[in-house]
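Teaching note: in complex prediction, the entire set of molecules is handled at once rather than each chain in isolation. The prompt given to students was simply: 'Predict the structure of this complex.' The entities are:
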Amino acid sequence: MNDIIKLLKAASSVDAWRITEKATESYELFFVHRDLETVRATDTAETHVTVYSDHDGRRGDSTFDVYRSMSEADIAAKIENAAARAKLVDNEPYELPGAETLCESLPTNMADADPKKLAADIADAVYAADDQPGGSINALEIFLYRDTVRVMNSNGVDKTQVTHRVMIEAIPTFTDENESVELYEDHRFTTFDPAKVTAEIAEKMREVRDRHEAKKPKTPMKINVVLRPKEIQTLLGDLARDLNYSIAYSHANLHEIGDDLQKDCRGDRITLTMRGVVEGSERSAFFDEDGLKLTDTCIIKDGKAATRYGGSRFGQYLGIEKPSGNLRCCEVAPGTLSESELKSAPYLECASMSGLQVDLYNDYVGGEIRLAYYYDGEKTVPVTGITMSGRLSAVLAGLRLSDKTEVSGPHLGPVKLLMPDMDIL
Amino acid sequence: MAFSGYLDGKRRDCAELVAELRKRFPYVSILGTDVRAAAYRADRMSSAAQDASGECGFVVKMHDGRSFFEYSLDDISGDKKELADRIASAVETDPRLKGRMISAEVLKDEPMKEDFVRETDFDRFDDAQLLGICRELSAELCAADGKVRNAMCAIQPYVVSKLFVSENRELSQFYGWANGFLIVFYQDGKMVAARHVEGSDSLEKIISSLRGSTEKVVDLARHLVTAKPIEPGVYDIITDSSITGLIAHEAFGHGVEMDQFVKDRALGKNCMGQYVASPITNMHDGAAATHSVASYFFDDDGVLAHDTQIIKDGILVAGLSDRDSAAQLGTDPTGNGRRDSYRRKAYSRMTNTFFCPGTDKLEDMIASVKHGYMLFETNNGMEDPKNWQIQCTAEYGIEIVDGKLTDNYVSPVVMSGYVPDLLKSISMISDRFEVIGSGMCGKGYKEWVRVSDGGPNLKARVKLG
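The expected output is the structure of the full assembly:
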């Protein structure tokens, strides 16, 4: 990085610069059924350099990649080319974040672990859940990553953060003489707890057995539908994205500050805070791609758009004095829906979907359901082969949030979200 | 533009590292990649001209007589024995796993030495021209209608250099592709985003198409603001080529990726030789099957590009494989081993996937629908090859009443159901044919590769919601 900085400082056509480097070491195992098919390791780095050129009262920028294999002459040529490109670009002026230094690791219990042993421990934890007749894990991929991200700029930013993260992709399967069905499990964590991994996979093993038993219910029907954290993230994440500075600056936003996102609300009001760090989430960070310190920001308060969030440049364009930084995690306040209240009326709880489709512009929410649990007021049965759809505005007006929360991916929030009166086909 | 000078200079390093690692592994190959991409973009407020996501590095693949090992790194310069020691050490396993390795045949290493080149016209355009065109078209779109809130034009060319070296094989390839986009954010009561996408290895063609499409995309936006939600139900549909391609891709493409056969993750494994679609249906995939975004000369395993017929007259006849899967299944690889980048593993992946044209006229197909929808433009899709469920989302549909397209737009349209039901319901296939080369495909929720898909118009009966 020092060589690049020396060249950038020597380039007269460069008014400012930023360097982002992400070095990743990984150790990866790929299982077919219970046998190990492939072992992989990686030691790679991505370096992106942005040069800024101020001209005619405007600011241009251009980013290029630097590879470890590049010579000094190669990099000098890339700087010259990027500076020429930056002169073609004429955006509103903005300042880079000011001098700050940091060198920190995100919380983990895996920093000192031998990756080969840790990967085998994780495999053991996953396969410990594979103990039911008819059940199997037909594929398992384990990825252990150590990311070191460093951002420097010409204003004196020099920040480094280290993240240890694991991603597991497992395929729980249930087979009998007539049929074989599967579910997809994508589990990510930054702190390894073998019992938690086994419990997570065991839950999916139970669900895949249920998918095998599941029948298509009588349709069409109108019923309350319950989402779990993965789909809750999709739904609320799309609402949050609409409040990013860059979306507002480009006039692609649907909502203005102060707008009631839950007009005619008769359910739980949403309070959503974008956060830098959510303990346990691999998306946690102390700073964004500009090196800007991340500041937790409540963007939806009691169902109303309270403020926006985002990076330094677009924040400045909108006149934000202290931009929040590009926050990637969020916290949603719990609601009032208890298990006992949930059980007071029939509902359909989605355990596995192809992917929740949310369309803010067209006021739509829906998707294909691979496995759901239908509670008819007395008993619960697994169902499959159905599709749900509804109006997003109606969902927002009537939604209920559970009173219990948990961390799932980048999201700390209610474990259940109830959408009233969805159409099921 | 030409094959990467950097990779060209690494041929000897690759051969030396292969030779060093061959002392420990019966099979060793190295894939070197140098992908250079650029992005030009302008909208009402801002512009950009910069490198887009590229890559430059190496992945070493080894087979020890039983299993597979890979190591990805940025450079292979320096002492080869030291590097080989580092690689061999990095891919060791915990002693608990040593008895659990699979047993697959050592990969064949058939001799071949060839350099493949497909020229582009990218050198004819410089940064100023491409950014200027983006600005011109963005401004034209913004000025087209007072209800346009913003409009973006983007052009994204990239060139691919890949070098494959094993003991007996040395292949190189160089080709390019570019995508162009127009997006209009339009507000008339409700807000919509209307898109036009182009893909080609000729920037001249892309620019010409973008220039000729500005009016069309604004007109689409005007219609989309009138779009209503669809009444959920089962309908006759006519697909445009984009939706035909989405069905091909999601319904059957993923289901015949043969690494899924190895894992018993695809129902297709048990259906070879059986009717899985209407007898008028034929479907292909392959880097050599047509000319589009995934038309490479050899795959990331060093296997030459194929044209694979997947469905013949409604019968499932073949799948798509990478080398590792083929070795485990005892079949020949089909040139479908693809990586997200040199940092990632190769899997069996689709390339250019499409249904073959039929003999029906589109106007006759529309005329045959009493009440249904014509569906346009892929939004996204999701596969479920084990259980053959499908979800495909179209950007919009136009209602057909008594055999005529109306002015009634619906958006979005989510199509779902059981794959064989959908494919067996295909009753008419048009004589038109288009493959759209602007897609990205993930495996599960990762491993993104560029793909194309398409085909003729189809008439089918599906569940829409």
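Point out the following to students. The two ends of chain A are 57 Å apart (CA to CA). Chain A touches chain B through 79 residues (CB under 8 Å).
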